[in-house]
Records
---
Amino acid sequence: MIVCILLPRFELAVAAGGREALAAGPLALAPEIGREPLIGESSAAAEAYGVRAGLRLGEAFARCPALKLVSPDPAGVADAWERIVGALEGIGAAVESGRPGTAWFDARGLRRLHGGDVEGVIAVARKALGVAARIGAAPSRFAALAAASRARARRPEIAPEGSRLAAYLAPLPVTLLSARPEVAMLPEALERFGIRTLGELAALPRAALADRFGAAGTLARDLARGRDTPLRPRVAAERLQEVLELPESAAGPQLERALGLLIDRVLARPERRGRTLRAVVLSAALVEGGTWRTQVTFREALADPRRMRLVLVNRLGDLPAPADALRLRVEAFGPPSGAQRSLLAEPAAVRLARLREAVRQARAVAGPDAALRILPVDPDSRVPERRLALAPWEP
């Protein structure tokens, strides 16, 4: 049996300071600064007015003038969700994590450790979480999510197995499909065709769904019938981070120097043990409230602070406001730095080929003027513009 842990409105609850704040009135996550003005998750009181995630800001206030916006906290959400997943892994579960607030694990290997049945595993998981969560169990991932959506905070829902699973899913709404990224766009289209339940979806011919929606249609039909792909548990990985509190709100060159210091601190940590860095997460606490977070995967594993800074400094331009604190966390390690190739130790032909590839990539992103060379035209001219000229660089 697959067990699903569901924490509704998880991102909103973390940003608002706790689930108690959701009962204070209609709340919704504010749009991220610098992005399209679409609100995020909304509380139950806001949904009663018709406010839902994805609405434009003006339409949301038109439906609910008393709506209060909460600054997004992506870094806080990531930290809180990491604690939840870590608690589940602490009981021996191999966890597949969806978006923050949804996780699955297979209970078969845990039965003998925790009571011999699914109910015992669920009880141990609930105790390890320490928060009120909806918990469902079913033979497949999607069915477990459907069961969790019907569960209550203190009453888990266990779906039947075998041929009865399709009948259990039949009366549920097709909006449950929106939890799967592969078929998230289908519920709206299906409802326009008058298909509102999973049972109605499961009764449609497979060929008709494939013709209209492609692979997403056939996958949605399989999900409605209780069939799903196997779980993909995340790989346990060591995480390393450094935080720098800024005495004054930082931006521009000051923030770049702080980033350089963070990179040096991370590379100097003894826990790194000479390994390179494959992926890192850069986050900041903003002056205006909330946080900012971005993940960077390097094209090749790095241990050179100068090259890391060149990559990460560009991301600082996405900061929507000055920062009070900056954090750098390692998400994935690469091989030891001694196994890296040295640009200077390579033959000239190899270096030239890599340089050509770098120029090609730069021009693909920034256009043909991304790589130019300086040519002396009239060095003795009194007019500075005549002394030098720019021409396309060709290796």
Note: The mean pLDDT is 84.
---
Amino acid sequence: MFKAFRLIWAVWFLILFCLVFLVLYLPFRILLSNKKWYPYAHKLRKFWAVCVLYPSGLFPSVTFESKPDPKKVYLFCSNHFSYLDIIITNLMLPNYFNFMAKDQLGKIPVFGIFFRTIDISVNRENQRESHQAFIAAAERLKEGASVLIFPEGGIRKNVPPMAPFKNGLFRLAIENQVPIVPITILDNWKRLPGGGIDNGLLPGKMRMIVHREVITVGLNISQKDELKEKVFGIIDTCFKTYHPQFAD
């Protein structure tokens, strides 16, 4: 019976998600046709998130250890256990930013419009294409847009815990001397997980912790691994504080 409820809820969420998107598709197409209008498309995605989350019984909240300055450029770095992570970060962060994620998202019919315009798709299986994606990310930073990267490289079936972080974000931060803002997403793995209905599909709270920025000014590329371990530790420690069953 409980499993049936979860399936019904998942179907309702999917229908609402798609229906609201279809209503907003034409405004998205217009706003994404000109790079100058991308910030307005970003705000429209926030409206889309509100229209989908609350009627689905999903209640996002954010706690700021230190609120990011909307006028500054950052690299946002988050754990990634659910596709809901994209929605909650887009909704709750005050900054304009572009996502950087796997290129499969850009191949999704209709929905892939974002990863062909405002966001950056990366093919991690192809070294040359991956390098080009990080060059594009550096250009966005120079243009004044923050970038959000999930450095685990995708959503695994069995989460939590976090997978080891990949290097790209930390190399990008050091090369561009851009601060990193770690983010811990606490509950999405129970809401809409990557591992199927046995691991989640439940409405409820969606908490997000935005940590203090990690300064990269003065660091050199030889300190990349040290920076990676520091940011991983901030997110991992926070998650395990709220979910001690996953502590070592």
Note: The mean pLDDT is 91.
---
Amino acid sequence: MKSYYLKLNNNISLANIWINGGTSLDKKNKKGINQILCELLTRGCNKYDNYKFSDFLDSYGAELNFEAFEDGISICLKSLSEYFDKLFPLLNLLIEEPNLYEKEFIHCQKASLNNLIKSKENPFNIAFNNLKQILYPEHPYSFNCLGDEENIKQIKYYDILKEYKCLKKRKKFLLTNNSKYNFLNLKDIKPIHSDKFVNKINSKPSIKNKYVEHYSNSKQIIIIIGSQTCPHNSKDSLALKILESYLSYGMTSLLFRVFRENNGLTYDSGVFYPSRKFNAPFLIYLSVSERNSSLTLNLLLSIWNDLLSKKISERELLLAKQKLKRSFLHHFRTCEDIIFRKVRLLSLDMDPFHDEKSKDLMEVITSDEILTLANKYLSNPCISVSGSKNACKHLKETWEEKY
């Protein structure tokens, strides 16, 4: 495990381990196995069973947060600095000597299945997962991170033990703000920033079906439109972040002005552009009433077309850059946010101080460059809608007229 230290002036100590390879490594017919393994890893280690482990953490007021993402598994331990020495050794034991009891596996399997079923109550989740299946055909990102219901039911205890053996071989990165450990100072490393993720899994396949729908009895209509773009370590990603800021950051954003301020149409709107190892999705999502859905889709397609045909004005570009700079301060205010972000950058072979340096890098990005990248990445969108059958029918007709 590569271990690093970052000085942060705080009486809270934490350590975050990132294990490369998350739910995107779930094998066929085993979708959900890394979600189960992620939770199972945190249910005791060495001489501590689940209850003793939990009691030990609670006795020091410590927190253990964990989550499985597409690209990796994150496990974070957090406590007051005065107690951290007693707790920190447990973090490594969770990875190297987890209990992995079969009775705990059964509990984690049931919890994972319940979480998946509950997630389907949210129409946004359904529309999003439907879109991923047509946007990422034959790609690890096409699957629901929580797994597949039938797959989860079929996962056996020995499958988990086999997956754990694979996990032990994956690259791991640890970052802490506690200076008592003899780890390499994060500021002393030589970063690598390159567009190296150019391989078969990162290519954009030909997408035949660009429209998907889900029928529900709700009067709420969900619309999500988007396209594959680039990995987070690509030189193009910063310009796309500026485009995200222009579209969705604050009440001056284009989406807010068009859909809420000018027309009072949407309950919710925004852009989803996450950090990903491979081609990240760039999505615009909207939630509207059924009677406003046709007008909303027409406005959305008009905005999408403008992204491909019109330059952002210099005034709007400057404002988008300023909002993006401020978002760095907003999103990374706590020690936990800062440590997680930087260990994530390490896992991508990127400069851990990429965000700080981005403030200067974005100054040279022009409207012409953003327009060029919009045409490069957004000219072949897909769309997912969720709502009543009648509403979906009209939306499909509108979509087919344009695409």
Note: The chain has a mean pLDDT of 92.
---
Amino acid sequence: MAQLTDKNIVLGVSGGIAAYKSADLVRRLRDAGARVRVVMTAGAKEFVRPLTFQAVSGQPVHTSLLDPAAEAAMGHIDLARWADAVLVAPASADLMARFCHGLADDLLSTVYLATEAPVAIAPAMNRVMWVHPATRQNLATLQERGVAVFGPGRGDQACGETGAGRMLEPLELVAALEGLFAPPVLAGRRVLVTAGPTREPLDPVRYLSNRSSGKMGFAVAAAAAAAGARVTLVAGPCAMVTPSGVQRVDVETAEEMATAVQQNLPGQDIFIASAAVADYRVAHVADDKIKKSDAAMHLQLVPNPDILAGVAAASEPPFTVGFAAETSSVEEHARDKLRRKGLDMIAANRVGQAGGGFEADSNTLDVFWTGGGRRLGPGLKTQVAQELVGLIAERYQGSQGSR
């Protein structure tokens, strides 16, 4: 990927423990070919010294709105105009609130208001702060204004708690930023994506599901939007942030997902079925919680709708891309699914092993079509998703002459 070569990136660093990762982020951005200038808030300087960022960026670090030397040349305007993109990592809850309300009381918030370049934020905060209604409202407002949101991830936090709110790792942020500069190979196209697991209830408390996190599907939706497509994402239950510019429809069961797909299918050019849909559901859902006993329990399962086959069999189907999560004989099973369901392409990966598949941040996909195939990755799911969307666009364009 060469999207960041010779790009000017203003990296904003706000106050938070994740600021220690931002020094490595500068190095990774420069490795990708970008020129980086760092703007730090007063809070950020409490965690990392400006000299650190000067050393890794090779440029003076900007910290003050009222620096007489810089402002003699309108320094905040100069930075805003110089930038090809502005990335704030970490973006604290306070920073998001100030951006949302248009405050301009420090250099970083002033650059945000003054730039015409794309802006992205990488949130980092305590898990409770992340789900607070004020933060969610600020997030929605920023996304409506076109601010791209990268993450956050889930995991252990500095406060000792575990959950959503971790800043994405530097390489993940580089890949996400590359997406802002991806060529608009799907400009004017409509793309429907499914992502995440489904939940099939047993009773009001329990359900059948799988280990899908939704990371791959959400990355695909983000990559398609970055490529210029109008994207609708039908998502099963998962704790993922809606990518910027993507319309999201939340569902829970396979039947709800099938209904949502059919409702949104008319007019779609491409359908990408990355969701891990449950093949079966229980025949009868208990009205009350099933009580534990010493006796064995037998569940009668019935097949769920085959969403992918239904789309491929439509009278005027979109270019249809399936996913296959396999534990063995990946190509054999994937090509069989490609043929049986009449798909245009299928992306297969081996699950159940470290370093890829469900819940992991990285992946490797073997993509097949009639008469061909290509391996994508290994790499971060954000990077693999960009490669996949590029390949889908290539195959889609080639298919138009034969339809």
Note: The chain is about 35% helix and 25% strand.
